[in-house]
Amino acid sequence: MKRLFLTLAILFLSHSIVAQDLSGRDKQGGKDGKKAFSKGDYETAAKAYGVTSDNFRKSNPKAQYEYLYACLLTNRIMRASEEIQSDFAMKGSKKLLTNEELIAQITDLAGQYEYAIEEGHAHLKSGNGKLAIESADFAIDIDPYHLAGHLLRGRAFLLLEKWVDATASIQDIIDANIPEEQAFYIRAVAKMGQGDTSGALEDLNTSIKIRPSAEANYLRGSNFVAMNQGRRGINDLFTAIRLQPDFIAANYLMGQVQLDEADFVKALEYLTKTIAIDPDYKDAHYLRGLANARLGNFGDSRVDFNQQLLKTPKNAATHFELGKLYALPVFDTVLNRNDKALHHFDQALLADPHNDKYFAARAQFKSQAGNTNGAAQDYKKAIAIHPTAFEYYESRLQSQRTGKVAAGERIKGLKEAITVFQQETQKPRKGPGFTNLSKVYLLMHEEGASGSWLDSALVAVDEALKESQRNAEYFHQKGMVYKKGYKNYGEAEAFLKKAVDIDPKSEIYWLDLATVIYLQGDVRKAIETLKSGIKKVTNPQKSQEKLGEWCAKHPGDC
User: Fold this and answer.
1) DSSP character for 17?
2) Nearest Cα to 171, choosing from 159, 187, 156?
3) At 297, is the secondary structure helix, strand, or coil?
4) Mean pLDDT, residues 412-421
5) How crowded is residue 483: how many other Cβ atoms within 10 Å of its Cβ?
6) Taking Cα atoms as reference points, which of 163, 220, 167 lies closest to residue 193?
7) Is residue 308 within 8 Å of 291, Cβ to Cβ?
8) How would you label 205-242 residue by residue, b for 16+ Cβ within 10 Å and e otherwise?
């Protein structure tokens, strides 16, 4: 079989020969073809005549006839069919088939081949890989030299997840150096099925280099997304959609990636297109609900989440997002909105009872509603699931303050946190433990607990910085010790500036840096700092609100 495809490669490559070489090739090919045909060596005749030019055969009717006859006897049916479409003149032989008989046989077999390929693709579309293979085998029996049958067979094996068989079906095409992008795509999928991601990407690169296609670009793009290289994936997904605008999987994934990249306008665009193609596609309504919520389209977001629940009524994430929506003040006019918020938080936890974020969100909602005891219970559960999450201790403290819980009880909760984070400082990577310990010590200082907690906070964060001088959070925490604790805004500014330099995309770092500058009285510099951060941060909502506040107070500095 490999030799057959090498022959096909020769036929294919013959079309790229420069004009000055054609005459010599035609002369030799015609001579060899005629000699082989006269001896009944039709395999050699087909190969020899096959490398001659169209013009040569058109001007040599007998050579054209002998080529077609040799193709018929050696199963090169589809190549012969292409020749017939050229409507060349032929001169037959009395000993062989007449021109009409030759054309009739080739046309009939070509028709059977094409029908088998169409039937096979119909089987693929309906998900019947076994019948698709039968159609492919029938086509290959008619013409083993034509690519369509082998490509169909390869795709059928992909459908059946028979990766080795899929590769074998198209390997001869690749070995023959035939530039067929589908062959490399099929092998890429087969490699991926066997866990060879790097090999799959190599084949996808080759396939796309030969000719970009919606399926190959989508597959490569989805791989980049899976490897957390969303920006690289966007280019391939864009190409896939350009080549096939109704490619639903590409539109959906593009929406998902744009959501991850915080480009909510584009996310909304692609997810809306996905839903237009298929309203029930995966969790497109859920993702569009997220995009709408991020854009402040809370009414549309609620509609999307409710649409998602019609399809997946026990979807924890959707219930969670609806709970957060109803907790927003914008829904104050909605009847029983507090009950609805609580209902959706409850449903989220019923579906996913080990999600600390759900407990923390419900705790925050209960605290806002004045249910301090209920909030405390939920924070306790969140901490039990994720004991090293500093934000849960901080949020619990804020809830206790709002509920006017006794100082002794508040300090007791912070001491629990100290025990947890002290244990974290015994691990090989000590920095995070020391940083969180510093944060808790700072809270102890703010609570007025007896002891030198502020100095301890500074010592702890310095221990973290001994581990790494390239961690923005460590510098940020040191800046906050000076800002909140010592009220030394100059020192705070120096450390917060280092945090911004390391991680310029963090809004909180810019906001805190601008604030300490503002507190030193340099309003213009504070505003300019905030504007710089807004340009670099993906979603600078809080910074924009603060800028508006400062500009309202100091219009001359804006």
Assistant:
1) S
2) 187
3) coil
4) 96
5) 22
6) 163
7) no
8) ebbbebebbbbbbbbbbbbbbeeeebeebbebbebbbe
Residue whose pair of structure tokens reads 């790097």 in the numeric block: 198
Annotate 71-98 with DSSP letters as a single string. Answer: HHHTT-HHHHHHHHHTT------TTS--
The residue written with tokens 């649409």 in the block is 307
Q: Give the phi and the psi of residue 97 in degrees, each rounded to 5.
A: -75, 150
Q: Are 437 and 421 in contact (CB under 8 A)?
A: yes
Using pLDDT thresholds of 50, 70 and 90, give the confidence band for residue 542.
very high
Candidates 45, 52, 31; CA nearest to 73 is 45
CA distance 22 to 18: 7
Q: How many helical (H) and strand (E) elements, i.e. helices and strands, does the chain have?
A: 31, 0
Nearest to 189 by CA among 221, 155, 139: 155
Q: Are 446 and 471 in contact (CB under 8 A)?
A: no
Does residue 369 have a pLDDT over 50? yes
| Lookup result for tokens 């059946």 | 160
Q: Using a CB cutoff of 8 Å and minimum separation of 24, what contacts does 86-95 make? A: 86/54, 86/58, 88/54, 88/57, 88/58, 88/61, 88/64, 89/58, 89/61, 89/64, 90/61, 90/62, 90/64, 90/65, 91/61, 91/62, 91/65, 92/65, 93/65
Cα dihedral 386, 389, 395, 401 sign: positive
Contact 153, 134 (CB under 8 A): no
**Neighbouring residues of 454: CB distance < 8 A, sequence distance ≥ 6:** 441, 442, 445, 481, 485, 486
Q: Which two tokens stand for residue 8?
A: 């096909």
List alpha helices for 213-283, DSSP H: 214-226, 230-243, 248-260, 264-277
* pLDDT tens readout for residues 424-475: 999 999 999 999 999 999 999 999 999 999 999 999 999 999 999 999 999 9
Question: What span, in angstroms and rounded, lies between the C-alpha atoms of 371 and 327?
Answer: 14
pLDDT in tens, 71-123: 999 999 998 898 887 655 566 666 688 888 898 999 999 999 999 999 999 99
What single DSSP character describes residue 468? -
Measure CA 15 to chain center. 39
Does the structure show a pLDDT above 70 at 300?
A: yes
Closest CA to 6 of 37, 40, 50, 72: 50
In this structure, what token pair is assigned to residue 62? 């007998």
